[in-house]
Design brief:
The complex is a heterodimer of chains A (150) and B (106).
Chain A (H helix, E strand, L loop, with lengths): L2 E9 L3 H9 L1 H7 L2 E2 L8 E5 L11 E10 L3 E8 L8 E12 L2 E11 L2 H10 L3 H21 L1
Antiparallel strand pairs in A: 1-7, 2-3, 3-4, 4-5, 5-6, 6-7
Helix pairs in contact in A: 1-2
Chain B lengths: L7 H5 L2 H10 L4 E2 H5 L6 H13 L3 E6 L2 E6 L2 H30 L3
Antiparallel strand pairs in B: 1-3, 2-3
The chains are: A alpha+beta (150), B alpha+beta (106).
Chain lengths: 150, 106
């Protein structure tokens, strides 16, 4: 449903080495941001950096570990805003590691960009709308009915 | 049902309104020229236009005797801004990670 960023990066190092830099807070801050991350499912943590005025972000990202499979997959929520409690950025960052003969293929996806209504129109414009949105409408309708029954 | 109570799904759940949004995605149009694309009465077209306007999908401007409808693109532009920012953010951070890994004493 939502728009995402996808990137693929090759490292000439084994997955264990790359994994360390994705999951050890001391190593993470060397290339990403200062963080109190711990590799525990459901763990709440923050990334902190300087405020980013151009994006109206205060530089504090609130995150939660959503999935963790050592050396293979890591996913966490990534939320941010202007600092008044409002969440303007509500995304999920997912890392996947694949061992290859020469090292590690790292796949990054940051998904969930865009408020639902904007994405919905965006998809409508690009023609991909019909199936997906209908499914959501159906689900919402079902949820409403469930509420009434409950 | 009053038009203002329609949610976003109800607003674009209607095929005629989706077609209107797509027609407006290329350029502004008068309500009359929009109506030319539909096999429905002018008041029916106006009703759909009003629903799109109330939901914030389009703006309406009176020019002479014509009413021009324009797609509100703010939402899309905002989305592009986020995508662009984080695309560059990750590319530069991963480059940094590569340098770190390559310089790591083994």
């Amino acid at each position: 449903m939502s728009k995402s960023i996808k990137q693929q990066f090759f490292f000439a190092h084994p997955p264990q080495a790359v994994w360390d830099y994705l999951t050890n807070a001391d190593l993470m801050q060397l290339w990403l941001m200062k963080t109190d991350f711990q590799p525990i499912l459901g763990f709440d943590f923050q990334f902190t950096t300087k405020p980013i005025p151009s994006m109206e972000l205060d530089g504090i990202f609130n995150c939660k570990v959503l999935e963790i499979t050592p050396f293979k997959k890591l996913a966490y929520s990534w939320k941010g805003g202007p600092g008044n409690g409002e969440v303007t950025l509500d995304t999920v960052v997912t890392w996947q590691l694949e061992a290859t003969a020469k090292g590690t293929e790292l796949y990054l996806e940051q998904s969930g960009f865009g408020k639902l209504e904007h994405v919905t129109i965006y998809n409508a414009m690009s023609g991909g709308w019909a199936g997906n949105v209908q499914k959501i409408i159906d689900r919402l309708n079902a949820a409403q009915h469930a509420d009434i029954i409950a | 049902m009053p038009t203002s109570s329609l949610d976003v799904f109800q607003v674009i759940g209607d095929p005629s309104r989706r077609k209107m949004l797509m027609l407006l995605s290329t350029d502004s149009m008068t309500i009359n020229s929009l109506a030319d694309n539909f096999d429905m009465s002018r008041p029916a077209v106006s009703k759909h236009v009003k629903i799109l306007y109330n939901a914030g999908f389009i703006s309406i401007e009176d020019v002479g005797r014509e009413r021009y409808c324009t797609l509100q693109k703010d939402g899309f532009d905002e989305l592009q801004k986020w995508l662009q920012y984080f695309d560059q953010f990750w590319a530069s951070r991963l480059k940094k990670l590569e340098t770190l890994l390559n310089n790591k004493p083994n």
